[in-house]
Design goal:
With 427 residues, the chain is mainly α. It is built from 22 helices and four strands. It has a four-stranded mixed sheet with strand order 1-2-4-3.
Length: 427
């Protein structure tokens, strides 16, 4: 039965306007991306939306989400930490999918032209490494200035925001999910906005609906006793929240149960230098949940952060057997594997087996430097030329970069290099 929706205005995430970040780092975490893609799949399925959506997670304590060209959806670590449950997170994602569904980006061509100058996609591609592994050498990178983000977000009209709001509400309806937690998230967003001095008078000058209007909604299905709230998904989400909260020093542990609190403690103890207690806690979870490979990955990260590289590699390889598309583990294995004493055939195989990392992490100097070392040992001249081109050519000058790469492609007879050049040009 179609439930009646009585909605005046309901906006989930224009609060990005009120965020205060000039620098942001991309977070690479396979478990979280896998979870978010599962929610996106549900949203796409019920709305028959067939386009691919690529999710990026950025380090930002404020709860944020926005879309950029080429169906890129950016969410903040703060959104994961502060969403009361997976439904409120799904509602935010649905709002952003609504912008894509209704071609709101394409309808704002004037803003897109200005926004393209930010080169946000390229900046995201330049950020390398996992913040969850606490690797100083791969953290950082400018995403966009607050002014530029604000200008971009003001590009959506109120009508477009209302369309996206309604799209999100209808998505919850189709999935038969409750809306209480979404209202709770709105209150968190309002408090964040008010704490930053963005009161109702300021909001009246915005193209976005003000918070007072956002609360004018009927809880259209909260009394329905046949809701599809999935406790297993929520349980999984709470583990992800615990991980983010531990790495970001968040102390509000109210919504974490005993096991998730143990997970939080295992990471927090590691970060504070107490490796023995950290391992004791993560080992407890590994024994209790033997099918959860992500606990093994976290143990690998803990060991790696304390300098136990060989030990961490053992756990990473176990996880990679289960999730062979986890490029973030491949990244760490690649960097940590000692190739100096490798036999020639093994080094050649290792070189070619990891070429996709060049595409997954373009312009990553740590990956490139390791490839250069191997290319020198293996006397691969054309590969050395390739790496020198992508290191020494200004990344913003894509036309010049592609020209040099195409010339190299014409010179070499190595098909794998030609393939990598083609993929690199299409980034």
């Amino acid at each position: 039965m179609v439930l009646k929706i009585k909605l005046i205005i309901y906006i989930f995430f224009s609060v990005l306007l009120f965020s205060n970040f000039s620098l942001a780092s991309q977070i690479f975490d396979y478990e979280t991306e896998k979870f978010l893609n599962k929610l996106i799949k549900d949203i796409k399925t019920v709305n028959k939306f067939n386009k691919n959506i690529k999710i990026h997670i950025i380090k930002d304590d404020n709860p944020n989400a926005f879309v950029i060209p080429k169906n890129k959806l950016i969410i903040s670590s703060g959104l994961i930490e502060q969403s009361p449950d997976y439904v409120s997170l799904l509602a935010v994602l649905a709002h952003e999918v609504g912008h894509l569904e209704y071609f709101h980006l394409e309808k704002r061509k004037d803003t897109l032209e200005k926004f393209s100058k930010l080169n946000l996609i390229s900046n995201l591609a330049l950020i390398t490494g996992s913040i969850l592994a606490q690797e100083p050498q791969v953290l950082g990178g400018t995403v966009a200035s607050q002014v530029n983000i604000n200008n971009f977000y003001f590009s959506f009209s109120r009508e477009q925001e209302r369309e996206a709001d309604l799209y999100s509400i209808k998505t919850l309806q189709k999935l038969n999910l409750p809306s209480e937690s979404v209202v709770e998230l709105l209150k968190i967003l309002e408090k964040n906005a008010l704490d930053r001095g963005f009161d109702e008078n300021y909001q009246k000058f915005s193209t976005h609906p003000i918070f007072k209007e956002r609360y004018e909604i009927i809880d259209y299905n909260s009394k329905n006793k046949l809701l599809n709230f999935n406790k297993d998904i929520q349980y999984e989400f709470n583990f992800i929240k615990a991980k983010f909260m531990a790495y970001n020093d968040t102390l509000n542990l109210t919504n974490l149960n005993d096991d998730q609190k143990i997970y939080y403690d295992s990471i927090e103890k590691s970060r504070s230098g107490n490796l023995i207690i950290s391992l004791r806690k993560i080992n407890f979870l590994i024994e209790k949940f033997p099918n959860n490979a992500f606990f093994l990955e976290t143990k690998g990260d803990i060991l790696r952060s304390h300098g136990y590289i060989n030990e961490s590699l053992k756990f990473y390889k176990i996880v990679l057997d289960k999730y062979p598309d986890n490029y973030y583990i491949k990244y760490k294995i690649f960097l940590d594997t000692n190739t100096q004493n490798m036999q020639l055939n093994n080094k050649i195989n290792f070189f070619y087996e990891n070429l996709n990392l060049i595409i997954q992490f373009p312009k990553n100097k740590y990956i490139i430097n390791k490839f250069i070392e191997m290319a020198k040992d293996l006397e691969k001249i054309y590969w050395l030329n390739f790496f020198n081109i992508i290191i020494n050519t200004n990344y913003k000058d894509m036309e010049e970069l592609q020209k040099k790469l195409n010339n190299l492609s014409n010179e070499t007879v190595e098909t794998k290099l030609k393939k990598i050049i083609n993929e690199y040009n299409n980034l």
